[in-house]
Amino acid sequence: NRDPAAYYQFIVDFRNGRNTLAEVQAKLEQDPQNVELNYQLVKKYQLRGEDEKTKPYYTAILESDPQDTFGYGEEARGYLAAIQLWETGNDLPLLEQLSVAKNPELVKQGYDILIRHYEKNKQSEKTLSAYENALQKLPEDYNLMNGYGWYIYENKLNGKYTQGIEVVRRAVELKPDAA
After folding, report:
1. Do residues 59 and 41 make contact, with C-beta atoms less than 8 angstroms apart?
2. Which of 42, 73, 80, 118 is the most buried (most CB within 10 A)?
3. Residue 71: left if φ>0, alpha if ψ -120 to 50, beta else—which one?
4. 32 CB contacts (<8 Å, ≥6 apart)?
């Protein structure tokens, strides 16, 4: 989160063996239905770039907190849908989750995952559709606008140049130094 004090505390805790992956895992073994410990473990794995290892912990969060008292439900459902996309290539669960998602940051993450998947699999129409749907949900996201414009340009989508230029023009209006 780029907070110097939080980063310093993270380093001190790590050096002292506090709040480490191993410590959280040990605590979770004693209380496997503890929503906060499951969520802490999710964040530890995400910090390490090991999103695929979050599946059992997000599942436990949903099972332990069906009323979403802790507020992690939307994130858990979104990431489980993303993991399913990575594992099987099935985009429907993530598309369904994005259609009901309310948290803008989670919507952005979900569309980023979907767009990267479509680009990697050379699914141009689905990539464009994902960008366009994302822009409808996040109309002020200049990074998304620039990504859409670059995608059109780099893939030489002649029929979309005018639309791409308009979207990039809007991004420059919103954030001139991000162009």
Report:
1. no
2. 42
3. left
4. 60
CA distance 127 to 53: 26
Alpha-helical regions (H) of the chain: 4-15, 21-30, 35-47, 55-64, 73-88, 92-100, 104-120, 124-137, 142-154, 161-174
Q: How far is CA 6 from CA 3, 9, 10, 40, 134, in A?
A: 5, 5, 6, 15, 32
Cα(87)–Cα(66) distance, integer angstroms: 25
- DSSP letter string over 113-148? HHHHHHHHTT-HHHHHHHHHHHHHH-TT-HHHHHHH
* Separation CA 13–CA 10 (nearest Å): 5
Give the C-alpha distances (Å, rounded to integers) separating 52 from 5, 43, 159. Answer: 29, 12, 38
Tokens, residue 71 = 């507020």
Q: How far apart are CA 110 and CA 13, in angstroms?
A: 31
Q: What is the pLDDT of residues 53-84, one digit of tens each?
A: 999 999 999 999 999 999 999 999 999 999 99
Crossing angle between the packed helical segments 104-120 and 124-137, to the nearest 10 degrees: 170
pLDDT at 14 over 80: no
Cβ pair 149, 171 in contact under 8 A: yes
Over residues 100-113, the pLDDT tens digits come to: 999 999 999 999 99
